[in-house]
Protein: Dirigent protein
Organism: Amborella trichopoda
Amino acid sequence: MRGNEALATGMAPLLLFFSSMPICQAQLGLGEPKVSCFDFYLHDVLVAEKRMAVTVAKANMKNASATLFGEVVVIDDPLTEGPELTSKVIGQAQGLYAFTSQTELSMFESHHLVFIDGKFKGSTLIVMGRNLVLLKVRELSIIGGTGAFRLGHG
């Protein structure tokens, strides 16, 4: 996810680069490793009539944390072809994130990218990692997938 504007707008373009593991892939009858490169937009809407991200836990602290430390949010965010929320929905990001630092705005994220339309319909990617929210460019790991993304990583 890129850009400080993503935090403010709840929208972040995602650029994915990953490949399937070459180890045992041929032995499993899955053919040669493939590399896919595509982009889409994840919309994390916190304030709306139909919220897509909901806080489910907060730390029991007397003073509110400037970094939201201890807050856990569950998401069911749309993935779209374009940057507008009204763009064609091609999937959902479903999972959670937790604010994990007392000194900087950072989150631990774990979610599935579930593709419901287009070339990758029925496939998923599993994303996990530390997200330093205020950095312009951030990286999260792809730790697995299903369907077209079986054995995916990146």
